[in-house]
Amino acid sequence: MTDSVSTDIQRAQPCYIQACGLLSALGHDEQSTVAALKKNQSPGMVSVYDQLNNGKPTVVGAIHEELQSLEHLPVEYRSRNNQLIATALSQIAPQVQAAVSQFGPDRVAVVAGTSTSGINRSSEALQYMEVHGELPEDFHYHQQETAAPSDFVSYVLRLEGPSYTVSTACSSSARAMMSAQMLLESHLVDAVLVVGADTLCPLTLNGFNCLEALSFEPCLPFSVNRSGINIGEAVSVMLLGRDKPEHGPVIALLGAGASSDAHHISAPHPEGEGAIRAMQCALDQAGLTVEDIGYINAHGTATPLNDAMESKAIYQLFADKVPVSSTKPLTGHTLGAAGAIEAAISYLVLKHQLTPPAQLNDGQRDPEIAPILLQQQQPLAKPRILSNSFAFGGNNMSLILGREDRA
Predict the structure, then answer these.
(1) Which controlled-vocabulary keywords does the entry list (predicted)?
(2) What are the pLDDT digits (tens) for 159-209?
(3) Backbone angles phi, psi at 132, to 5 degrees
């Protein structure tokens, strides 16, 4: 283990997770997601071919459950992305309403993270126009705008607090978590709804295919045979506050670290400089050392460059002392939702005291990457989890979640 990287970050006050609603390929709610995590199997990882221009089948993380209808809302709010959000919100409606009643609608903020928002509606609308010569009546440009997720939540809940969307590619919703922490610490608001949502669509599938970053088989993080990502769709909605929840386990966001190495528009810095700084910033903000972390949920995209970089960065700080795995074989890479859904998985591991997910791959570890300790069946030895999200452009995020005593 090497010396820590100095970041001059002041320790932050923890903010507490009051409730979490989620959907992904793993499950349609907390109960089904926990059941899938215990089996380390994902029912929603399926093979599709109709969304790729070359007609070649690829594996995606899909949500098949029935979603909340938005037909009663104005047309600009009707998108699958917003349906995902509405369905996750319905899972935590009592806690959200209690927060609004306690603090007032002007003291509850919404910070969303997304990459493609509702752009699938535009893809569908253009396909319709090719056939009918005009856009469909139920299409509105606002459905695809980046601000759509936060606007939607504020609209349906009649909230009057700060409301905005962060879009920094695959670190978007992890950065939204950090933004929520700062809003609470500044006392601008008393509660924050953190939303991470992205939806499957041909644009992203074909875009990553053109980048030659798409795997046509189940992805293999840290394997010598890894060839690319599986894209997925997911949503997580967390309610954060400054006080510990009245009931149940106490799970907190302890620290958040951000960096931007700006090495390349799509390739990560080969030495992981920005990743190291983000992880160290999160540790410093949480007032923790590397010895305090019990598990690392890696970004782990299964691309050759990311896994080589991330393993090197993790090894520099943690050596081979902390179990590491990527949960993307269970959810797919959910792009702008990745930070939030992986934080939600970390939350569930802590809340239900689960064994962290073992690393799914073909068992053929890449001998060229740094020798980090890949998670197999190791119980969570320490109740603190580091979750990484690294994005295009060198936009890096690390979050630390921890379970605390109620006293």
Answers:
(1) Transferase
(2) 999 999 999 999 999 999 999 999 999 999 999 999 999 999 999 999 999
(3) -105, -10
For the purposes of burial, counting CB atoms within 10 Å of the CB of 197, is it exposed (0-12), middle (13-18) or buried (19 or more)?
buried
The answer to whether residue 53 sits within a structural domain is yes
**Active-site residue 263, yes or no?**
no
Q: Nearest-CA neighbor of 345 among 13, 12, 36, 56?
A: 36
> Do 12 and 258 form a contact (C-beta atoms < 8 A)?
no
Instruction: Give the rounded distance of the alpha carbon of 228 from its chain centre.
Output: 18
Of 140, 142, 269, 299, the active-site residue reads: 299
Q: Say if 244 falls within a structural domain.
A: yes
Q: Under a CB-based contact definition with an 8 Å cutoff, are residues 323 and 342 in contact?
A: no
Q: Where are the alpha helices (DSSP H) in 65-220?
A: 80-91, 93-103, 119-132, 148-157, 172-185, 202-210
Of 15, 20, 170, 201, catalytic: 170
What CATH number does residue 143 fall under? 3.40.47.10
Residue 218 forms part of a structural domain: yes
Flag whether 79 is in a domain: yes
15 is catalytic: no
Residue in 140, 142, 269, 333 annotated catalytic: 333
Is position 299 annotated as part of the catalytic site?
A: yes
User: Among 188, 168, 181, 164, which residue's Cα sits nearest to residue 256?
Assistant: 181
How do residues 34-68 score in pLDDT, each as one tens digit? 999 999 999 999 999 888 888 899 999 999 999 99
What domain range is 386 assigned to? Answer: 15-404
Cβ neighbours, 10 Å, residue 119: 23
Q: What pLDDT score does 351 carry?
A: 98
Q: How many domains does the chain have?
A: 1
